[in-house]
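Summary for the funding panel

The consortium committed to producing paired sequence-structure records for every protein in the target list. Below we show the first two records in order, beginning with the earlier of the two.
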Amino acid sequence: MKLLSLYREKLWVQVMIPVSAVVSIVIIAIIIFNIREEKNLINEQLWHQSDVLIDTLEGGMYDALAVGDNDMVRKQFQRLNEKIPDMKIYVYDFNKNISFSTDLEMPGKSLDMVLKSRTVSDVVEKMIIDGKATEQSFEITIEGEPYNTHVHPIINESRCYHCHGSTRNVLGGIAVCSSVKNISSAIIDTRNKSIFIGISSLIALIILIYKFFDYRVNKRINILLKTAENVALGDLSLEKIKTSDDEIGQVNAGFRNVINIFIRLFT
């Protein structure tokens, strides 16, 4: 009831509520938009980085596997694991069994068991059939940590025929999983800062509205009301009534005119 009474009695509260609602909606929309755009930009950058890495890996593997040097490929993945510990890479065959990985315990295991994502599994199966790469990345969880995953098919090219034959168009694929734990923390930190700035701005706006109405409206109306009370008591002095071009100033001017008419009539 007190809040309802305050709303009815205070003009600045009546103005503040709808203005604050609109500002809040705008701030929330901006925060959501910025976070979404930031995530999209990060995912796009990760996708391109993974794509470049996949091209490099394919070139290195082809050279080593062409001479049957599987150990060279394993060492290559071991070095990658040492240099980039936040990235997991899996090379899998057309049965989705892992052949090489930066995680030395993964070869021989199923990709589905590692990634545990029905969506990624379906995409991989489709790529093994049609050989078409996807430009989409996927958010998955590995060992409790979030990863951005990019999968890419390994096409059976002519230089592979001597080992794999020419029957299959796709030999398997490569999955690159980049940890986004730190990125997610940064996004959350940015979101919290944006919320803090938004709330601070809203509080500043409320204070500004209150000060504006207190100075430009409340004080002038109170002076007018006090003068009206004094007139009722017989005090016809108008020194405190100030006129201006705005609505309250025009009301004051009208009030002065009325009082001046009374003065001329009764003096």
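The next record, for a separate protein in the list, is shown here:
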Amino acid sequence: MLSQWHEAYSGGGGSWQYADFVELKPGSKHAEEASVAGVPFSCGKSIRACFSEQEYQHSPHCSEDFDGVLHLRFVPSDSPDRYDWVATWNETHWPGLKPKKATTTEVKTVRLHTAMGHAGDGKLLDDAVPFCEPINR
């Protein structure tokens, strides 16, 4: 399940998505609680960086841009008949007023346990990544 929010303002805006992963069971049933909750799923943010006519004419890039996305890979769990996820967060940051070669990428990887009692593992990833520098956290 995804929860998201958006913000918009003159010259920019952003959106953020968190995921809660719920185990699906046979017969259209599902677990009562999320296996893993509060996992950063994706984000994007753009902040205006040019304010004068001169900046607009001479800047290689008139916004500061952030983009992040989650990649999941299944791995065997310590619990029988279960799988865990290796969650890898990739986020790029292109600073305003800078050429594209100034773009940086941050990659963080954590293991998310899916056995009951580990729903809070999503916070491990959330605490480790900038998540497009949201102001709503």
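Regarding this second record: DSSP finds two helices and eight strands in the chain. Residues 36 and 50 are 41 Å apart (CA to CA).
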